[in-house]
TrEMBL record:
Enzyme Commission code(s) on record: 3.4.-.-
Keywords: Covalent protein-DNA linkage, DNA damage, DNA-binding, Hydrolase, Lyase, Protease
Name of protein: Abasic site processing protein
Taxonomic superkingdom: Bacteria
Top-rank EC class of the record's enzyme: hydrolase
GO MF annotation list: lyase activity; peptidase activity; single-stranded DNA binding
SUPFAM superfamilies recorded: BB1717-like
Biological process according to GO: protein-DNA covalent cross-linking repair; proteolysis
Annotated InterPro entries: SRAP, SRAP-like
Organism expressing this protein natively: Actinoplanes digitatis
Family: Belongs to the SOS response-associated peptidase family.
Keyword flag Cell division: no
Length: 229
């Protein structure tokens, strides 16, 4: 977790939702975001002295990395170690961001078949994943999503989930510094109860597939009727 998610709101809408200035390049909505894709993030900007909606490559590339492909292995940062990891700790202290999402995907294996599930707010509100960012070679903004142990019924789908921040925690997260345990505390039971888990079509397993149809329920399997002779 988290290896696929959906983010479909426009940069203008995100600017309003997060009270931020939009500096991001225009991105098409995506119902199947995959590692290394460009994604919207919300971060603090010294230049604008405000929050900005920016564009980052999903998969943090440490400043010392020689190859950008290293980012494909660093799409997630574990909340348990982000404050001490050499690759993630500097960004956790000084370069935190929010990663807007509509929901995220996980898979559960049932015998030889894998069923995809989509986790999303029941009221269709925006999710803010806790994220960190860095600039690779002064030209490529990259980010990672923090994950934590899955809570409640979500643990039946996967043992990890994104660290999701409610609106009242956004200022503290974006400010930098602060107390790690407090910053990394999990969502409350009430916030967790607002997350809906629904089975969706298997098409989402292919990164080339995209569109709102990926969020629809899978077609029921039709058992062949026995023919009597």
């Amino acid at each position: 977790m988290c290896g696929r998610y959906a983010t479909t709101r426009s940069e203008a809408d995100l600017g309003l939702l997060f009270d931020a200035v939009t500096v991001a390049e225009e991105l098409a909505p995506s119902w199947n975001v995959a590692p290394t894709d460009p994604v919207p993030v919300v971060r603090m900007s010294r230049r604008h002295d405000a929050r900005v909606v920016d564009t980052a490559r999903w998969g943090l590339i440490p400043p010392w990395a020689d190859d950008p492909r290293a980012g494909a292995r660093m799409i997630n940062a574990r909340a348990e170690t982000v404050a001490t990891s050499p690759a993630f700790a500097p960004s956790f202290q000084r370069r935190r961001c929010l990663v807007p999402a509509d929901g995220w995907f996980e898979w559960v294996r049932d015998g030889r078949k894998r069923q995809a599930f989509y986790m999303t707010p029941a009221d269709s509100s925006v999710l803010a994943f806790a994220g960190i960012w860095t600039m690779w070679r002064e030209q490529t903004l990259t980010c990672s999503v923090l994950t934590t142990a899955a809570l409640g019924g979500l643990a039946a789908v996967h043992d990890r989930m994104p660290l999701i921040l409610p609106r009242e925690r956004w200022p503290e997260w974006l400010a930098g510094g602060g107390d790690a345990p407090g910053l990394l505390r999990p969502m409350s039971p009430a916030e967790l109860a607002a997350i809906e888990v629904r089975p969706v079509r298997p098409d989402v397993g292919n990164v080339r597939n995209n569109g709102p149809h990926l969020l629809t329920a899978p077609e029921p399997e039709i058992e062949a009727e026995a023919t009597l002779f």
